[in-house]
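User: Reviewer 2 asked us to show a designed sequence for the structure in our supplementary figure. I'm pasting the structure tokens here. Could you produce the per-position amino acids so we can include them in the response letter?
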């Protein structure tokens, strides 16, 4: 089935080039020049991924990214001339899957897009085979991407969900910061962002975040999920 790519970019020359390269690579492409009614556009087009410019005439792409990520988990590739590290970190924390600086090579862009589409497709196939994970008081619905503790839903961002799931799947196994960076598609070497996500996750699942019961730290190495039982059940 042909993959659909939504391009949100106001530079007409770049839009035309993106359309040419994407169509040539076998994608169905729809382009818009602003963020107006973006959720309706997504509902109508049903894209498999989005190429999203940061600087748009009516709204910043970073805000669009936040809105889209709240409802959808497909790859969002931010493209921007902004090169400040804090901007890149912000985009990734908000929910961008990838950040590509302008000007960029189209072959590189296509390669990155293919990688993220394949990864997302693999995640979907895995979720279709297994619908639920159970360990201790935690229940993870792998279809709706929701986490429950004692049957009370815990509101998580996409990356918080992925991080908790990664820890839950192998209780007791220490996950290094480098491994978590790779799993969550953070910028390589961004250890600080890992610590921030762990802290936020603890604030949501722990009764006493400053003295965590579930997510433990192995000093100098990383983090692990602490459980009396190492048995994980799948339904």
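Assistant: Here is a per-position design you can include in the supplement:
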């Amino acid at each position: 089935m042909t993959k659909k790519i939504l391009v949100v970019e106001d530079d007409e020359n770049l839009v035309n080039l993106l359309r040419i390269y994407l169509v040539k690579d076998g994608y169905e492409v729809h382009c818009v020049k602003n963020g107006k009614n973006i959720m309706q556009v997504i509902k109508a087009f049903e894209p498999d991924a989005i190429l999203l410019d940061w600087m748009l005439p009516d709204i910043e792409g970073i805000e669009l990214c936040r809105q889209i990520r709240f409802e959808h988990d497909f790859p969002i590739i931010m493209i921007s001339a902004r090169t400040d590290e804090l901007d890149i970190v912000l985009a990734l924390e908000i929910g961008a899957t990838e950040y590509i600086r302008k000007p960029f090579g189209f072959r590189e862009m296509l390669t990155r897009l293919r990688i993220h589409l394949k990864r997302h497709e693999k995640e979907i196939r895995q979720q279709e085979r297994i619908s639920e994970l159970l360990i201790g008081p935690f229940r993870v619905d792998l279809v709706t991407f929701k986490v429950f503790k004692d049957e009370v839903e815990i509101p998580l961002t996409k990356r918080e969900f992925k991080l908790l799931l990664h820890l839950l799947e192998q209780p007791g196994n220490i996950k290094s910061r480098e491994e978590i960076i790779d799993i969550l598609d953070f910028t390589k070497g961004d250890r600080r962002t890992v610590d921030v996500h762990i802290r936020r996750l603890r604030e949501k699942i722990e009764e006493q975040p400053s003295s965590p019961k579930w997510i433990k730290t192995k000093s100098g190495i990383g983090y692990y999920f602490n459980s009396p039982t190492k048995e994980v059940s799948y339904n």
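For the response letter, you might also mention the following. The helical segments are 12-24, 38-45, 61-71, 85-94, 106-129, 158-169, 177-183, 191-205. The two ends are 29 Å apart (CA to CA).
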